[in-house]
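Form 7-S
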Amino acid sequence: MLRRHRAIFFAAAAMLALGAFGRQHSAGGDAKATPNVDRHGDALPDGAVTRMGTTRWRHGDAITFLAFPSDDTVLTAAPDNTARLWERKTGKEIRRFEVGGTQQPQIGQPGAMMMAVPFGRGAGSRVAITPDGKIFAAAVANNTIQLWDVGTGKALRELKGPATGISGLLFSPNGKALAITGNERTIHLIKTENGDEIRQIKAMLQKGPVRFILGGGFAESNGLDFSPDGKILASAEIEFGQQ
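Output:
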């Protein structure tokens, strides 16, 4: 009987020792624990233990702009005032561009009739990317245009747009010029490197009983396009006339 009690005592002592070792091992492991991630390896919010579904290919809002900066990446922009660069093969988010300047012009100020925030509903025309996919541009409040390096995510510079508002942006084929449509049926062509104006292209006067003409495209279209050699710029207009 004494031997039996001794055996039970030693077994209990061994279990307690193993329990203590397990806690110490666990505590030591916590310091070196892998980040809290979902099954795809993407980080979870603080306190979350799992994720149903995935955040890959999920911008989080209606996408109003889509482009391929390269064969390996996809760029999206949405009304949440962000642009996101995705890995094409996996849909993993590479980086995010936080667009600044969300204050709208007040009534009575230049551009008050134009929604200057780039990614509002139907605002896909107020963003652009160079044909080589290296520079991303977006129109922000106070008629300013922000430029980013797509490859590094670095903010490059800000350019001043026309005081009457910005309704569309388009880079020239070589990326050295930016065409901007405003509210006064005039296209402003500026240098990408410093914002200096190259020239203004005025709309032709219309003949006949036309009541109203709106420059640029409609909804997601900027109503602009360059010829492949960059020598010709076409502009669309919406004409509201009498029946």
